[in-house]
């Protein structure tokens, strides 16, 4: 019988990576910390200051870093995109998205406006300031969420993006969300909701209930620009009702309740 060779450290590392990949594919997002006592395995959470218990495995860190790099490459690719001639000649720059990898919540709008086009960051104009207040009212910070748009270039005159323009950007959006891996999505306005979900239903019918994007729960609500003074500020109450439903689904407390 041939002699069995002891596995090398590289073999063990490869087997561990394969095992963790299989767990991640099955939806497992954490593992208990096991310590051996008297020949048995005892599961412990470990003290709060025990970095070995609270830190994710190195393979997960490597995965996050890999996705960050791929997101940077994708943003660079978008910055050179020539798919929509009218947008290419009118834009100052592309507006890709901001926020952390693995954000619990991602806000998706329709397209950059004039201020966003100048600064290269989504939702930084008047509507963006209102979105910041909505995020704060939910007990979160802007840096905690991911923010992007259906299209990455400002349409001339702040018009809605056409179906062709949204279709040209669809590949970028889908890959962006695939790399960020948000746990929840909030679609802001009819254009964002309809393009994300592939529907023609009005935002009034879409809002207030959950939809699905590739297994991710989606809450649709009105766009912050729609709520500004001179337009429909009375709709803020409905947006807050939508956000409370979203917070409940996320398992977060509603501030002030």
Characterization of this structure:
- The chain has 257 residues and is an alpha/beta fold.
- Helices cover 44% and strands 14% of the residues.
- It has helices at residues 9-25, 51-54, 58-79, 85-90, 114-119, 126-137, 163-180, 190-197, 203-206, 236-250, and strands at residues 33-37, 40-44, 97-98, 105-109, 146-149, 184-188, 210-213, 216-221.
- β1 and β2 form a beta hairpin.
Which features would summarize this protein structure in a list?
alpha/beta; Uracil-DNA Glycosylase, subunit E; 10 helices; two-stranded antiparallel ribbon; 257 residues; six-stranded mixed sheet
Secondary-structure blueprint of this entry?
Blueprint: H1 9-25, E1 33-37, E2 40-44, H2 51-54, H3 58-79, H4 85-90, E3 97-98, E4 105-109, H5 114-119, H6 126-137, E5 146-149, H7 163-180, E6 184-188, H8 190-197, H9 203-206, E7 210-213, E8 216-221, H10 236-250
Parallel strand pairs: 4-5, 4-6, 6-8
Antiparallel strand pairs: 1-2, 3-5, 7-8
Helix pairs in contact: 3-7
């Amino acid at each position: 019988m041939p002699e069995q060779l002891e596995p090398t450290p590289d073999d063990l590392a490869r087997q561990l990576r394969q095992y963790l990949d299989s767990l991640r594919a099955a939806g497992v997002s954490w593992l208990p910390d096991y310590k051996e006592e008297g020949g048995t395995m005892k599961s412990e959470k470990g003290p709060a200051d025990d970095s070995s218990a609270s830190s994710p495995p190195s393979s997960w860190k490597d995965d996050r870093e890999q996705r960050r790099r791929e997101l940077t490459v994708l943003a660079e690719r978008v910055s050179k995109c020539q798919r929509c001639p009218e947008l290419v000649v009118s834009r100052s720059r592309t507006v890709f998205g901001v926020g952390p990898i693995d954000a619990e919540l991602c806000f998706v709008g329709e397209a950059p406006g004039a201020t966003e086009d100048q600064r290269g960051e989504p939702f930084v104009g008047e509507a963006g300031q209102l979105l910041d207040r909505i995020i704060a009212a939910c007990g979160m910070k802007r840096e905690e969420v991911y923010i992007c748009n259906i299209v990455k270039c400002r349409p001339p005159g702040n018009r809605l993006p056409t179906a062709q323009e949204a279709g040209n950007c669809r590949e970028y959006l889908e890959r962006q969300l695939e790399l960020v891996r948000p746990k929840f999505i909030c679609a802001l306005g009819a254009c964002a909701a309809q393009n994300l979900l592939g529907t023609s239903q009005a935002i009034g019918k879409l809002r207030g209930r959950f939809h699905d994007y590739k297994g991710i729960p989606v809450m649709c609500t009105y766009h912050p620009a729609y709520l500004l003074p001179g337009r429909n500020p009375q709709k803020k109450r409905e947006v807050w009702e939508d956000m409370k439903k979203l917070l409940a689904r996320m398992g977060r407390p509603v501030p002030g309740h």
